[in-house]
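Journal club prep, notes for RB
We'll compare a predicted complex against what the paper describes. Inputs for the flavin mononucleotide case:
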Amino acid sequence: MIRIGIILGSTRPGRRGEQVARWVQERAGLRSDAEFELIDLLDHPLPHLDELPGEYRHAHTRSWAATIAPFDGFVVVTPEYNHSAPAVLKNALDFLRAEWRDKAIGFVSYGGVGGARAVEQLRLMCGALEMADVASQVSLSLVTEFEDFAVLKPGEYNVTALDKTLDQVVAWSTALAPLRGTADDTGIREHIGKVIEAIKAKDLDGLRQLYSDDVVSFDIDPPLQHAGIDAKLKNWANAFVFFDDVTYEVRDLTVTMDGSVAFVHCFGRLSGMKDGAPMGGMWVRATFCFRKIDGSWLITHDQVSVPLDIASGAGVTDLEP
Ligand SMILES: Cc1cc2nc3c(=O)[nH]c(=O)nc-3n(C[C@H](O)[C@H](O)[C@H](O)COP(=O)(O)O)c2cc1C
């Protein structure tokens, strides 16, 4: 199912934007051709841009990227401030690149004279972000669509305009799906990054979030398979006992994906320190298989191995990528 994020682009105390976003969300909720979710910028406080898009050094960038990545398209609810869009909205857009690319975007604006000028500027910006902006839009004047400039009472023509905007966003989000491989690839790479972070922190609860409940793991140690998330976590817990400090290195990571299925192959090495001495670990071949479940990527199968020396029957553990 196509997922559309409704981005509430105003964070001002006393903002009118919340009413507008709720109206969009309620109207969108009547549809069965897509899922809609509110993304309130108040819930995603970002500093002024503090790294290049794509670097993802900071936790706030990673968190914002992880919020935006699963969506196929967006409806932006924006006021007009000084003939333009709010700085907080532009900043949030500037932070990311791949997560916006090849996704549709529609606009619902409001303001003293409807907010159309803010939308014109956002359209230019979305072009630079390689987004597809749909033609239909909603412009709500504070004078005619808000009672006493305060309470949203949209006219019937604006309900029609909203439906048409949603139609176009859903249609284009669907049509652009084949182009979105690269953006989703970022989500998969970030997912592997989260696995690494959770291993380093020996965070079993964090790891639990990254696998499906029914994961089947062909891990390097017996038995033949570790079926289910509890077995997988038990295996991680066993591995953590060998290290006081642990790290996981990944090399030559390759992602292949199509729609809601993806697989990754790479070389990996678990290593660390035990009783003050380094434990070098060994390089293994690793494969992670992903499925998109309820809009989120999860590892449903993994396989870890070393080559076998057929003559001796022993695993070869001293190879390096
Ligand atoms: C700093 C500022 C600048 C504004 N500039 C414009 C403007 O250029 N054109 C306009 O139609 N309305 C303008 N307005 C009116 C806003 O669009 C209106 O107050 C709207 O409710 C603001 O959105 P918010 O309540 O979600 O913050 C401005 C309001 C503010 C606070």
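Talking point for the session: Residues 181-315 form a domain with the Nuclear Transport Factor 2; Chain: A, fold (CATH 3.10.450.50).
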